[in-house]
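Duplicate of earlier report; Flagellar transcriptional activator (FlhC) input re-posted below.
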Amino acid sequence: MIAEGLSYEDQLQNYQLAYQLLKRKLRTSYVSQLIKSISLPEIRDIHRSIHQGESPSSGLLPAIEAIPQVRESMLYISLFASLYRSASQIDIRAEMDVSAIIFAWDFFCETFPNHVRERRPYGKVRPANFSEAWVVAQALKIGLAAVHYCKSCHGDHIVIYNSKFSPTCQICVIDQLRKRGNTPGLR
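Output:
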């Protein structure tokens, strides 16, 4: 089935993009939102084909506010967001850069090779999977989160508005807690 208005080459590019996203196990609903020329049932079939019959994840989609459960998670989310922003050649506050998300995620996974978890329980390293990384990128685009530069530690940090963590540099907060000896859990 060729979508009306799309050339054969455009259709092939859409299937290639769907493949790239689904091999990283992006939730099928996100793929469907991005690629309108491929039906949701076909996207699910592609997922099953890539992952040897495994059905795509179902259930609630992750919310940016719920991703960081402990303060240390904010460090990793900041790292991913900074990688994404650096890899993108467009304004990530205006639109999502899919190739930059893929690049940042792949680099993040190479840096933390044992952290990726498709299912709970997740560890401190977040985003824990590609769908969470996608949610971080979405939040940056729609203004639920922002990457800021810290004048104290000279690093990037993410601020997730309406999260349980104050909109300050969590790297500096953790450093202050460690200096005071308040490190259990770093919550």
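The radius of gyration is 18 Å.

Merging into the original ticket.
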